[in-house]
Specification:
The complex is a heterodimer of chains A (102) and B (504).
Chain A lengths: L3 E2 L18 E2 L6 E2 L15 H5 L6 E2 L17 H23 L1
Antiparallel strand pairs in A: 1-4, 2-3
Chain B lengths: L8 H8 L19 H7 L14 E4 L8 E2 L24 H14 L3 E6 L9 H14 L4 E6 L4 H10 L4 E5 L5 H4 L5 E4 L2 E4 H21 L3 E8 L8 H10 L4 E6 L9 H5 L6 H12 L16 E2 L11 H5 L5 H40 L8 E5 L16 E8 L2 E9 L13 H11 L5 E3 L5 H9 L3 E3 L7 H14 L15
The chains are: A alpha+beta (102), B alpha/beta (504).
């Protein structure tokens, strides 16, 4: 029984000091959880601490690969809104590229 | 690499200045009415003094990546280098790196007076990293002012530690005092090992912010309040926020416009939530200024900004560049003291000049006869003696009543009352004592006290008596003259007072 931090982690350090088992450690390119130490906070807290403070939806998953924080659950940003965001980012990127190449 | 130390401040300031004075919004001296002991603390702080921000520089170090809440105007994926807004940084520093960077900047930009920790998360959600940085700096660079900016959730538990490091400036971002408004701004807070969603989370945040504000002002730590103006969410509510935070002792209110673009990936940005127009922002700042010293020159810096407000010299001080810098801090400190003294002298001359011009203008206007003969106004003050406003409203056994008019300020008499609140448990029958005070103050349009609590505020206003705590510790007659002038300037002397009573 262990949780896992995946690549969408933004390295904000918030989870690391909260872990009752000191299972979380800084690594590159992102923080990791030592599966031998992680107990999913059973016996210590009602909710797993790392996923209770993590601001990034989907960055922490359980053994079945299911995200503890589902899309939209933390930010209120729905899938459609996110698609719009990606389009906006691409547009900005293209504009910057065009400005560079003249 | 070794950057040259600036030798002549005057030329450099003009060129390197982040902004020309005309672009800084209102030229109102928002510190003019602050008591001397506060002015002395903030006169060289670019974020607090409109005057100072043209001369003194600040820097932020991004040592605090973790956050304990989510705001709808923030995107926690902050790894963007081309944006200038709070919460955005290029590299998160360890406390050791931060200390090195601060000393390098201080040696190379001697007009840098202030080091702030503002993120990119919440400094108090990273207590270890934040306080290690402060501790090291207060030892190694004692001539740098330290300040911190927080959402306030962890503030009450941090006040003790903050006062240890001699941090005399704290900024709290308070966007609301109503959990229903808060629920539209904060989707969650992390509190006592749980993520608390929505209104319940917002209520906890608000309570912690207010408690933290009270604890800080009790300890004499200066508190500035930042509010983000979010049209349709809290714009109508911020005047109330201003009133509440002022009554609890915040000395400056900074209302900032929401920054929300879809490409920032924030909830508000993606929702198409509009930002306020400059006119809307100014209108709200004006509405709040009746209750509060307003700040209008904020530039909404990044959490790793370096330099004068409005400029960012961060790229000159990236970690790889400062690695190679040799810093002789004791020598730099001597240089810095010289530069600071030079700027202070310049500012003093400017201030004298400004006062002289104002006096000359007033004298000229009087000669030309276009100063209208405005009506006299009665004002009450609470004092423990010494000729200064140094008694709390609720502790006053008597009020001194003065009449202000175009010919000057004169003492009218004193009026006895039962103290509205002796503090502590005797506040129970405050209601009837307040009624008595309202009765004895009848005819006065303003009451000036060292501090006025939130509770008597509304009844005083309803009785046509404007509570005023802005002139704490100031000489009575000067303060009354200033308030009278403010009333004249804002057109209040043209209107009839709601309650007017002749005093024999």
């Amino acid at each position: 029984m262990a949780l896992e931090i995946i690549e969408s982690c933004v390295n904000c350090y918030a989870c690391e000091p909260l872990c009752p088992n000191e299972a979380i450690y800084q690594a590159s390119p992102h923080f990791l959880i030592d599966p031998d130490k992680c107990t999913e906070c059973a016996g210590d807290y009602d909710d797993a601490q790392c996923s209770s403070i993590c601001p990034i939806e989907g960055a922490i998953i359980d053994e079945l690969g299911v995200a503890l924080n589902l899309p939209g659950s933390l930010t209120g940003i729905s899938a459609e809104m996110l698609a719009k965001y990606q389009a906006a980012v691409e547009a900005t990127y293209r504009a910057a590229l065009e400005a560079k190449t003249g | 690499m070794d950057l040259p130390v600036i030798n002549s401040i005057s030329g450099e300031v003009a060129e390197g200045g982040g902004c020309a004075s005309h672009s800084c919004g209102s030229t109102d001296d928002q510190l003019g009415h602050l008591p001397e002991h506060i002015r002395a603390k903030v006169h060289n702080h670019p974020c607090y003094s409109e005057q100072a921000h043209h001369y003194f520089a600040r820097m932020h170090v991004a040592v605090a990546p973790a956050c304990n809440i989510q705001c709808h105007y923030c995107n926690r994926k902050y790894d963007c280098s081309n944006e200038s807004r709070p919460g955005v940084v290029s590299e998160v520093l360890t406390p050791e790196q931060a200390v090195k960077k601060v000393m390098a900047v201080a040696a190379n930009i001697p007009q840098m007076t202030v080091l702030g920790i503002a993120g990119p998360g919440d400094p108090l959600a990273n207590p270890e990293r934040t306080f290690t940085t402060f501790r090291e700096l207060s030892e190694k660079a004692p001539d740098i002012k330290l300040c911190v900016s927080t959402n306030g959730l962890a503030l009450p538990e941090s006040v003790e530690e903050l006062s240890k490091h001699n941090i005399d400036h704290v900024t709290i971002t308070i966007n609301c005092v109503d959990p229903d408004v808060g629920a539209q701004i904060y989707p969650w807070v992390f509190w006592k090992n749980k993520r608390i969603m929505g209104r319940e989370g917002a209520a906890i945040l608000i309570e912690q912010q207010q408690r933290g504000l009270e604890m800080l002002t009790e300890r004499g730590i200066l508190v500035k309040v930042n509010s983000v103006m979010i049209p349709g969410v809290n714009d109508k509510h911020l005047a109330e926020v201003s009133k509440v935070v002022k009554s609890k002792g915040a000395f400056l209110h900074n209302v900032m416009p929401l920054i929300a673009e879809p490409e920032h990936g924030t909830f508000y940005g993606l929702m198409g939530q509009p930002s306020p127009t400059p006119e809307e922002l100014q209108e709200l700042q004006d509405a709040c200024s009746g209750d509060m010293n307003m700040m209008r020159h904020c530039r909404q810096c990044r959490a790793d900004a370096v330099g004068l407000l409005g400029e960012d010299r961060g790229l000159e001080f990236t970690m790889d560049k400062i690695e190679d810098m040799e810093i002789d801090y004791p020598a730099a400190m001597v240089k810095r003291a010289e530069v600071h003294a030079q700027i202070a002298k310049e500012l003093e001359i400017k201030e004298q000049d400004r006062q002289f011009q104002a006096q000359a203008k007033a004298a000229l206007a009087a000669l030309q006869g276009d100063v209208p003969l405005t009506r006299p106004v009665l004002m009450a003050v609470s004092t423990k003696g010494g000729g200064v406003i140094n008694e709390h409203f609720g502790h006053a056994h008597e009020f001194l009543v003065y009449e202000a008019s175009p010919v000057g300020v004169r003492f009218i008499g004193h009026r006895k009352t039962t103290p509205y609140c002796e503090g502590g448990s005797s506040c129970g029958d405050g209601e009837s004592a307040l009624d008595e005070t309202l009765r004895v103050l009848k005819g006065c349009e303003v009451v000036l006290s060292a501090k006025i609590g939130f509770e008597p505020w509304a009844p005083l206003e309803a009785a046509g008596i404007q509570p005023n705590g802005e002139h704490a510790m100031e000489p009575i007659e000067e303060a009354i003259a200033a308030v009278y002038e403010e009333m004249r300037a804002t057109g209040k002397l043209d209107e009839k007072p709601e309650l007017q009573q002749k005093v024999a």
